[in-house]
């Protein structure tokens, strides 16, 4: 193994360190409030959506094993404008994840039950980080970045240790909550009690309770592809192993949470009234599991910390990859000669992440930005994968499945639905943030010569039109998802599904021969395929 390369085990640990973050601490309680016992289905739906989306990116990642690769795939198939929009959207989501995890650390610190921790009480008030707490958030973010300043070996050792801890605590929580107080009656005795808010509640929970956010970090393996040992094998293995383990843990955690709630509490308030500030820790205390509550309060610090460290690495490599197209300042792509880490990109990400949390001090607000911006980027993955099969069938593809012909359109449709589930006006707000990057793109494009804007715009028009469509249908959709109820549920879903199929076909037809395909060919030449 080459120096500074990441083994399969370390890659899985990196992914798990990202996947099992603040989402598991907040998600189960939030999802149960929205969907009741049927929130179990929400977690399964979220996992299926991410597996289908990952399917496209595993093919692309093994074709082009380069650091920050997810910011380049759309560029290879549709030119630099679409590539920039996709990369910018993905980068926005990644740098937002850094303050999210720092906020989670500080929020749980503020609720520590020990008398010696009274000094943390002022960090959080009425659902928002205070000015005092903001300095603690900044300190955590600085430490996240500092750990990444060292070698990849240091990063993988740290995250491997954290990931093991993060696997043990949720597993103990599942086992002991079920053993100490499991009430099967909480799951209902008919469809109405199992699904108190109907199918709409199930879909709402997928996006707004942090479920999608909790599964999003599979891309850690893709974005570190240039530093993974045997990428032609280990990208595929790393993604599936980490997603499978995470899905099992999250579903079991939801089952344990639902079964552990005291039936008398449900009788008084229903699921919508079950609102714990620290869901699993509070339930552990009610069940007399004091030792478990202490571990949970500790993990509420460790889990987000480990995830924050990993996303500093991922976001920096995504920004570094964007410099290859010449659409952001070149110095951000410089790599430290000794440790092979993109320190300038890390510093820039830290500054912008600090600015984000200054204006958005609420975990759920930051989580919403992540979910929508991520799926704007994911919309290009299925289109790029199928387009490149048509444009370059001779490219080496270590992972090539005949199922892509149906997985790609299905995952694109699901992407449209997830953005829609984020609810108006969140949809238009985040889409606006994504499009704010265009002036930077145009500035660097005007500095170049022989830039064919007409072709770039034509190849990107399908995505721009798709975002306009989603914004409009979000406003006109059912009131359940924040709209004015012009199109009632489930007709709003049907419209999104049918229109998404049309945009998918348009996107594939918009691919064209561009200069970046030459770069793609050079990267693909390094791929090894074993017989």
Automatic annotation (TrEMBL):
The keyword Membrane applies. Gene3D superfamilies: Amino acid/polyamine transporter I. It is found in: Membrane. InterPro entries: AA/rel_permease1 (IPR002293), AA_Transporter_AGT (IPR052962). Keywords: Membrane, Transmembrane, Transmembrane helix. The keyword Membrane applies. GO terms for molecular function: transmembrane transporter activity. The chain crosses the membrane at residues 41-60, 81-109, 129-149, 161-182, 202-226, 238-260, 280-298, 344-360, 366-386, 406-424, 430-447, 459-477, 489-507. GO terms for cellular component: membrane. It is a multi-pass membrane protein. This is Amino acid transporter. The lineage of its organism: Bacteria, Bacillati, Bacillota, Bacilli, Lactobacillales.
